[in-house]
Specification:
Keywords: Coiled coil, Transferase. The protein contains 23 helices and 23 strands. The protein is of the alpha/beta class and 646 residues long.
């Protein structure tokens, strides 16, 4: 009996020691997680401080430039008033009565001199020409910016609602790069249209009917695009075709430059005469196509000219300026009407700031489709949110739809094809490295609906070589031949990092994604993530904010919800999407756990930009994860897909 009690005591001690070891391990994991969270929060805080200081410096620079412009205007006015005073003095001096008085004064003691002076004063004298106000000259380094976005920044940092003023950190309109650096276009456009086009090619603007030959000769364009502008030096030329417009089109014809008239507003009848001088007419309004067709059918082209062709060039989302990048000052916690959001005095760069300001916008019926698309592309919910809380999933779906309906890049492709210019531009094909975790069918089901994939490199853990060959056959059948397939058996003796490094050497796409078949990915996951590369300068994208589901407790949690749409020190490895050449230069560490943390450290060391995208489209699935449980926010006890997959 004593021996049984002793054995029972020993067993209890062993279990207690095991429990203590597990508790110590959990405590260690918790401490490590808290340390990583603290490091990340410290890095985010430092980054936020740098961004705020940069925004303040840029704001001070903008204010200094505004003050400089005001001083230039004041100086020009003072010079003008000085010239006016001199003119008035000269006019008085040449007046007959003034000259007679001078003659009498100088000849009062000499009759001969008096007679000569009076004869001279009696002769008419030419009055000096009155001075004219001269335009205020711009500084030479600001007169004609070389990069898109330069000198096209927001100028109004305050908004007024119900008598209260709110100070915003303006959205910084990006400079370059452009989509087709091999193509140059001379463009006459209002600020809105110019913002849509400026990233599509090398763009020359600011020329006038008097100086176009000198300005355009510096870089002869391939295309002339003239919008139906209502202000500026070309507006009068378009209402009634003048010598300036005819000379510009003749100059283009001599050099084989395509000419396009873009109707975005105004009556067709008022613009028909000017538009008929161009080779091509495109309209932003589908409803006006029939009217333009009728005008062209009845109009007789001038001798030696062919009738212009007719097409569509609607307004569309420009990813470089219509994107969910947030304001540094955050969102205003109110739903605004469109009239409150966009008062008439705002310049277009200021409009881009306003788009990102409110938590939602209530748009009236009849709001232009392009306006709704621009708002949605900036991540702003449209319509009053139910229950007062913004619906992030609905806003994300609207953003995706705004891009799916066609970006300005897509529309310019169609225009270039129509006028006979090459529309070739870089694409972003994706090679996917997928670890199938012993379940190739699940891996293929996750990959099949993804868009933009040109190649699958499948690392199969499904037993022997025969199983790998069967996985390759199934992959080719499921992907229907439109995706290149490479299957390699994952040697169990190698770490995940080594496997990824070897798979990277087989990749051919411009971008490389790493996906893990034990997790869950929505059908739009890759398309949404690849969009990051159209509006950021990042080399690697991924998710620092994401949902996770822990099976042991049945809990869905949300990790780092404040980490969306920002440059951050790290993203999670199973959401990695990077430029192939950058990933090759970095390489993957010889580790199975933590290879992504080492990669992110190397990015920070080498100055590689890492961008965290939205929280949607990905779910981390784990049986148990103490780090996630301790560092994420509980969403609910239930599946994650209703919250994460849009």
């Amino acid at each position: 009996m004593a021996s049984e009690r002793l054995e029972s005591t020993r067993q209890a001690l062993r279990e207690a020691m095991a429990q203590a070891e597990r508790a110590a391990e959990l405590a260690r994991l918790l401490d490590a997680a808290q340390a990583r969270i603290a490091d990340a929060e410290r890095a985010v805080g430092e980054l936020r401080d740098v961004r705020e200081r940069l925004a303040e410096a840029e704001e001070r620079l903008a204010e200094a430039r505004t003050a400089e412009a005001a001083l230039r205007r004041e100086l020009a006015e003072q010079r003008y008033q000085t010239e006016v005073a001199r003119w008035k003095l000269s006019s008085v001096q040449v007046a007959r009565w003034s000259r007679i008085g001078d003659a009498i004064k100088t000849g009062k003691s000499n009759p001969v001199r008096l007679a000569r002076g009076l004869r001279g004063a009696a002769r008419p004298a030419q009055r000096p020409a009155a001075p004219k106000r001269q335009p205020v000259p711009e500084p030479r380094d600001q007169a004609r910016p070389a990069l898109p976005g330069a000198a096209f920044q927001a100028t109004t940092s305050t908004r007024t609602l119900d008598g209260a003023s709110f100070r915003l950190k303006p959205f910084r309109v990006p400079t370059g790069p452009n989509t087709r650096p091999h193509l140059t276009a001379a463009v006459v456009a209002d600020p809105h249209a110019e913002a849509l086009l400026r990233y599509e090619w090398r763009q020359t603007t600011g020329f006038t009917p008097r100086d176009f030959a000198r300005v355009l000769a510096a870089e002869v364009p391939h295309l002339l695009l003239v919008e139906s502008v209502t202000q500026g030096p070309w507006a009068e030329e378009l209402r009634e075709p003048g010598e300036g417009l005819r000379a510009l089109l003749a100059w283009c014809a001599e050099r084989g430059i395509r000419t396009v008239f873009w109707h975005t507003g105004g009556e067709v009848a008022d613009l028909a005469a000017a538009a008929g001088l161009f080779e091509h007419i495109v309209t932003a309004r589908t409803a006006s196509v029939q009217e333009w067709g009728a005008v062209l059918a009845t109009a007789e082209p001038e001798p030696g000219r062919r009738a212009p062709s007719l097409g569509l060039l609607p307004f569309a989302v420009q990813p470089r300026v219509h994107n969910p990048l947030p304001l540094a000052s955050g969102r205003f916690d109110r739903v605004l009407s469109l009239e409150e959001l966009l008062p008439g005095h705002l310049s277009y760069p200021d409009v881009l700031t306003s788009y990102r300001w409110p938590k939602a916008v209530d748009c009236p019926p009849g709001t232009e489709t392009w306006r709704l698309a621009e708002l949605a592309a900036c991540g702003t919910p449209i319509g009053a949110p139910e229950g007062g809380e913004p619906d992030g999933r609905r806003a994300h779906a609207a953003l995706r739809q705004a891009y799916a309906s066609g970006t300005m890049t897509d529309k310019v492709d169609d225009l270039l094809d129509a006028v006979g210019l090459p529309s070739a531009r870089p694409t972003l094909g994706i090679s996917v490295i997928m670890l199938d975790r012993g379940d190739p069918e699940r891996a293929l089901a996750l990959l099949a609906p993804q868009q933009g994939v040109v190649q699958l490199v499948l690392l199969s853990q499904s037993g022997d070589e025969g199983a790998a060959e069967e996985a390759e056959r199934r992959a080719r059948a499921v992907l229907d031949g439109h995706v290149g397939v490479v299957v390699r058996r994952a040697d169990p003796g190698l770490t995940t990092g080594v496997l990824l490094d070897r798979a990277l050497d087989l990749c051919e796409g411009d971008l490389v994604a790493v996906m893990d078949a034990r997790d869950s990915y929505g059908e739009h996951y890759l398309a949404d993530l690849a969009r990051v590369f159209t509006f950021t300068t990042a080399d690697i994208a991924g998710k620092a904010a994401y949902h996770a589901h822990l099976r042991d407790v049945g809990a869905t949690v949300l990790r780092r919800p404040d980490a969306e749409y920002s440059y951050l020190p790290e993203v999670t490895g199973a959401t990695l999407l990077g430029r192939r050449n950058v990933l090759r230069s970095l390489g993957f560490a010889d580790l199975s756990e933590g290879w992504d943390e080492v990669l992110m450290r190397q990015c920070r060391t080498d100055g590689v930009k890492v961008f965290s995208a939205d929280r949607y489209g990905y779910v981390c699935l784990r049986d148990h994860d103490a780090d996630l449980l301790g560092s994420a926010r509980l969403v609910e006890y239930g599946p994650a897909e209703p919250h994460a997959l849009v």
